[in-house]
Each structure stands twice: as structure tokens, then as C-alpha cells.
Predict the structure.
Amino acid sequence: MKIFERFIPPEKKSPILLAILDFVTDVVVIFALVIFVIKPFFIAPFRVQQQSMTPNVLDGEFIVVWKTPYLFGREYARNDVVVFRPPNSENYLIKRIIGLPGETIRFAEGFVWIGDENSEFEKLDESFLSPQNFGNTCLANFCSDSTKAETIDLEVPAGRYFLMGDNRLGSRDSRSCFGSSCAADADHSLRHDEIEGRVFFAFARFWNENGSSNLSFSGVRLFGDPLEN
């Protein structure tokens, strides 16, 4: 770019100076595009600093969130892994969408059941859970024989989503109103516009024995096609 060249007196123009100014200009423009265009409307990077999605997303991993289609009305689907910031919180969380708008979520026998408009319930396929968590999903963050014996139904309001972490025994999610203990002003679910976007790419940083770090692309994982609904 030659933006600054017109402001430099002819006698002070030099190839090195012009090259430096061009480089600085390019960096500023790229930085502005990332901050003001790409991040708000296209993709956003995050580093995971929680264990609520283990073993599928690990603490310390880097993820990329796809935002564009959801800004223009695309609905989220069940099992989408998403990033969001709960109301009255400064921290971003990562969870999995379990209940869709208008559905009824049933907790029974340590599993999740989804009810339709005819009040018929079907057990949710959660083969992605670890052996420790499989069959241990209750409304509380712990399961016992007595809590598994209870049947509890929660209705997801229209336009909202019910989310849970894959580490069911160690996740603060919709069941606990994201850690607020479901106080009077808290809600079990999230609005569409409260979700930052869908995770479609994750990779890990590993540390060598000498203390240095490197990105291991053997740990790269895709969470569906970003163009899929």
C-alpha cells in the first residue's frame, strides 16, 4: 500500500523506509479486518479452560467457532458443540446442545429422553459420553440410585436451547443454570442470540520434555462441516 508515501518529502523517500511503511500498513489493515470483520461475523478462536466437555474437547485445547450462518437465522441442531457466555457472566463456556426449542427434556434412569408434541419420549443416543458418564445423567451434577429412580421433565421454551457438557458429572450447564444454582432470575436455557457460534475445528498444543511447546496436527478434529445445518 502507498498510503503514507504522499506524506513523505521527496528527499526523505528511500526504498527501505517505504517498504517498512508498506509492511506496517498491511499489518494494521489485516489486524483491523480480523478484529472488526472476521471475528464478529465469520469465525472466532478460543482456548478451552474447563473440563466440562471431556473426553471430546479437552482442557487447554484451541477451538475455532463458525458464526456466519447463525447470524442470519440458521437454527442450531441437536449435538452441536457451541460456545456462549451465560447471562451475568464474563466467561465463555463450551457445551453441547441437547434440547431444542419447544421440546421436553426428561431425566430418568440416568439417561436423557426427548419428548415430542405427542408426549412420547425417546432415549437420546449419547454414545459420545465416556464410560464414567454414560448412564449417569441426572438433573443434579451427581447421580445416585435414588436420583436415577426419579423422573423429572423440563420444557425448553420456544426460541431457546438446553445445553449440557459431555462430562456430565463435572459440568455446570443448563441443569444448574450454568452455575447460578437456578436463582429466581436464572434460566435453564439460552436464547439463539446468546450463543456465539458452533465449534467446527479443534486442535491441541502439546509440551515437549524440554519444556517447549508445539502444535500437533495429529490432534486436529473437525466437528461436522461448517456449511452443514
